[in-house]
Amino acid sequence: MAPEPIDFLFPIKPGERNYLSGTMGEIRSNHFHGGLDIKTDQREGLQVYAAADGYISRVKQSTYGYGNIIFVTHPNGLVTTYAHLSAFGQPLTDYILKQQYEKKSFELELFPEKGMFPVKRGEVIGLSGNTGGSGGPHLHFEIRDGNDRLYNPLKYKFQEVIDTTPPEIFTLGITPLRIQSRVNNEFRRAEYRTTQKGNTYTITDTVYANGLLGLELQTIDKLDGAANKNGTQEVTLLVNGKQVYNHYIDQVPFELSRQVSQHINYNIYKREGRTFQKAYVDNGNDLPLYNATNGRQGRINVHPDSTYRVQLVARDSYNNASTLSFVVKGEQPTFTKTLAKSVKKTSLDYELIGNILKIMATDTSSTPQNIELLKGGKSLVLVPSYMKNSQSVGLFDLRAGLPDSVRFCGVTVPFHFEKLVPAGQEMAFANSYLKVLFDKRSLYDTLYLQTKLEDNVFTVGDFFTPLLQPIKVTIKPDMTAVKDKSKAAVYFLGTGRGRGFMGGTWGEDNTITFSTKNMGKFKVLEDTKAPTIRLLSKSREQISFRIGDDLSGLNSYNAYINGEWLLMKYEHKKATIWSEKLNKDLPLSGEVVLKVKDNAGNEATYTTTI
Description:
Elements: E1 20-22, E2 36-39, E3 47-49, E4 54-61, E5 69-73, E6 79-83, E7 87-88, H1 92-103, E8 108-110, E9 118-119, E10 124-127, E11 138-144, E12 149-151, E13 168-176, E14 182-183, E15 190-193, E16 195-197, E17 200-202, E18 207-220, E19 234-239, E20 242-248, E21 252-253, H2 260-263, H3 266-272, E22 277-278, E23 290-292, E24 300-302, E25 307-315, E26 321-330, E27 347-353, E28 356-362, E29 371-375, E30 378-382, E31 386-388, E32 391-397, E33 405-408, E34 411-414, E35 417-421, E36 427-430, E37 434-438, E38 447-454, E39 457-460, E40 466-475, E41 488-492, E42 500-503, E43 505-506, E44 512-518, E45 520-526, E46 532-538, E47 543-548, E48 554-561, E49 564-571, E50 576-580, E51 591-598, E52 603-609
Parallel strand pairs: 17-26, 18-26
Antiparallel strand pairs: 1-2, 2-11, 3-10, 4-5, 4-8, 4-9, 5-6, 6-11, 7-10, 11-12, 12-21, 13-15, 13-18, 14-18, 16-17, 18-22, 18-24, 19-20, 19-25, 20-23, 25-26, 27-28, 28-32, 29-30, 29-33, 31-32, 33-34, 35-38, 36-37, 37-40, 38-39, 39-45, 40-44, 41-42, 41-45, 43-44, 46-47, 47-50, 48-49, 48-51, ...
């Protein structure tokens, strides 16, 4: 049952024109953006007002994520949140400070009793800021229900925000979903840039296709008076005038927000940073955002000699809409052959598209050569489906078996396929150098697991395939490269030069076990360097330091004055900690000792006197 209607007050400068830098449903690295990012004049310290009567039911201080955040529960059961605050109002501030000293921790989460901190609509409950994972000063504002479902705040039609600007549509993506599927007689994901006239978009070419296809849309939304690229909340797909699919990003369950990875083309997002929303419900996607009525979850099945007039409608929270229209003509797949202008060296490459292994074999010959798949000494001849620019393309459904390697004109390339891992099942895999345990909820869809060990780097799957829940991995590193196990841990190497601390637990057999939410490359590294500490300032009112660590990252920091614990607040973006006294009337005086420890257990100590 929906909560009773409520007249919410806009939490920043109510009654005045406001601007947003973020809206509900934007695609973030591992979640949907859950509310509004309200601009605060590029500064901190604006008053934040309670949107309605209620009481403070939860409060949290953290270096990351939401930073300083207040949750206010209202009589109708809805909850509003106010995040990245620079300060809390009174008497909440004194309550939090006392709890921090009792728990001897800056970071904490509290759930006050219902009558402790009542608030009235329009009451100032804090000041806007830039704490936590914020990329600049603003207020993050959410509306949730009692089950932590995130509602779109703009549906409450705040007069402070004006939007008459329809979404923009940049690119159409079309992905073949079966082995017989084709887009312009090729088995590949195709992209089409749009041409705009007002809020109507087209693509210049007719799409010739066959079989089951999935459509994707690269779209953003802008609000009046702001250049920020926000998310488009609603997409509708119509074929020959009939709606076959719709998604509307609202009431997103907080615990399912990570499933944004299946809502978008995750591979393109991770490789290129571009966001394509799928106009179909992909396997493993349980989000309650969809209405697909064609029996194929929005996928289109194109038949030869048929014509499909397709429309994709992008709509924002204020009902501004843009429409992309194009034509798809069904075309029976045929063998085609085109040659490159110059002679090329024989080469082999491959990619996975769903269950289909696509092999691209380039040869100097003008006649297509067969491709050989090898498995346990046996050979399977793969006849090319088509040839383009002297590149023969062979297709193989991996559900028929996992080949060891591929051979073409004397060139052999190994695959490193280890196991077909179905979604929805607990499954374990082990070889000579690693073990992987998949939970029932680890995978969205079938995984064709590939592993590799090279130069003491362990590859598990690939970084461009999303996980829903973590997997547990055990690796056996070369111990000649490990001098001190107590300082050694697993690090995620990603795709660049960054190294993410994963930790891990050492076993008696010199293996180390860790959990990960991402597949990719991992390596055991040692961190033997203690964190760094630099005094920034000291006075009888406050002392501050800059702290850092070059590998495993900071784990804890504790300061003491004359042996008594002293609260240090932390801002990770500036790598700065500073003191806050429990008793404001008592000056800092005496010996100050700061101890900072990293995730490898290395500790640095700094001593000074005030």
